[in-house]
Amino acid sequence: MLPVKRLAAVAGLVVLGLAPSGAARAAAPSAQDTQFLQSIHRVNLSEVSAGKLAQQKGANQQVKDLGKRFSTDHAKLDQTVQSTASSVGVTLPDRPSADQQAVLNHLKGLDNTAFDTQWISVQLIAHQQAIDVTETEISQGSDPTVKQVAQNALPMLQDHYRALVAAARTLGVPIPETPSPQIPSPSGTAPSPSGTTTEVPTPAIS
After folding, report:
1. Residue 3 — left, alpha, or beta (φ > 0 → left; ψ -120 to 50 → alpha)?
2. Which strand (E) or helix (H) includes residue 190?
């Protein structure tokens, strides 16, 4: 049993936020950990909405099925992201980024084949960006709990990307040869079924 003076000293440290190891969480999350949680949360919000759009507006059954799968998977991932953010003290945004919302708004105005091809195009970019962000967290993150979220998310994101590549080949949608983690322009281009070029907002992660 600790002497009275020792107990008083420990109690004082707790009040001051200087309790010995194990009495409180050690340190605030790093900038990298914070950025990852906020970015992947925005990805999840965007993907849930995009998946619902695919189910509603897609003409191709493969697109509809991918939309349902992505919406379900990203909603499940986001439960873990929100729980982890809460435990490490990171405040999450309440909506997708402006770029992601611009993509969703663009897709809402499309129908049938035009929707299918451009949905696949932007999803290829969005998932490659999400993979890049997640791999960066795995290699540069500090908090083991946050890094575990990234490690668990990566196989799912890679599976989604492979499924998108297969769908793109079926629908004749060009596949980026060398996907880039940084998209310099706020908008990109994607070929339309007629072979002309149509402006498509880029779902850049911020």
Report:
1. beta
2. strand 187-191
Contacts of 15-23 with CB under 8 Å at 24 or more apart are none
The residue that leads in pLDDT, 120 or 25, is 120
User: Which pLDDT does position 153 carry in this prediction?
Assistant: 98
From residue 104, alpha-carbon distances to 71, 101, 122, 159, 182 in Å are 14, 5, 10, 22, 19
User: Does residue 19 register a pLDDT over 70?
Assistant: no
Radius of gyration of the chain (CA): 21
Instruction: Pull the structure tokens for residue 87.
Output: 């435990």
Q: CA 163, CA 19: separation in Å to the nearest integer? A: 50
The stretches of the chain forming alpha helices (DSSP H) are 4-16, 31-57, 61-88, 98-108, 112-140, 144-171
Three-class SS of residue 185? coil
Q: What are 199's strand-pairing partners?
A: 189
Residue 90 backbone dihedrals phi, psi, to 5 degrees: -105, 130
pTM: 0.76
Surface-to-core class of residue 169, CB atoms within 10 Å of its CB (0-12 exposed, 13-18 middle, 19+ buried)? exposed
Which DSSP string corresponds to 119-138?
HHHHHHHHHHHHHHHHHHHH
